[in-house]
């Protein structure tokens, strides 16, 4: 499973420099920070919280209903909106706060000047973009897997994001619902509901209103690993 959470591309001294030319802004959970199709005139550097990058899934979307697909998860010390500013392209996805978010708002011109002075960051940006493209390619390959395998891989992707809180009951994810899991797995919400029902019957997960708890991580990993055994 590829970890699509953006890796930090900035060093501590970079953060200090950017703090001088940006301002801190807060977003409540479920806020749309960036909208697909908007002009690209700023970058966000996350200090706290997690966001998801979402765009319509062409395999699930109909004229009556646009089904979102999660194409990226970003947490603290990650940057969002950075590539569109460089390419002067329209935003390619919505960026939505999964949790409360605190971020540095960096004007596009400031970001470009910063990159001009720090070419190593440009290299890190393109490496990170390549990792994300590879992760999306893996997801397309995984479309042939069983529904339970795809759900298991989506759960492992959530774990890799660092978004979960480990407590005595398992790994807890707030503000994560069936639609989010469907978006990660590239499946319909109805298929996800049936698969999660089987997982819950085996006490692998627990779900509630905008809540997911992974109770048995070993079982999730074993289900995901069936792909490797079946293809051997």
UniProtKB/TrEMBL annotation:
Domain HTH crp-type, first and last residues per copy: 145-218
Single GO molecular function: DNA-binding transcription factor activity
Keywords: DNA-binding, Transcription, Transcription regulation
Example of a GO cellular component annotation carried by this entry: cytosol
Domain Cyclic nucleotide-binding: 27-132
Organism: Stackebrandtia albiflava
Residues forming coiled coils: none
UniProt cross-references to PANTHER family, sorted A to Z: CRP FAMILY TRANSCRIPTIONAL REGULATORY PROTEIN, DNA-BINDING TRANSCRIPTIONAL DUAL REGULATOR CRP
Matching InterPro entries: cNMP-bd_dom, cNMP-bd_dom_sf, Env_Response_Regulators, HTH_CRP, RmlC-like_jellyroll, WH-like_DNA-bd_sf, WH_DNA-bd_sf
Keyword Nucleotide-binding attributed: no
Record protein name field: CRP-like cAMP-binding protein
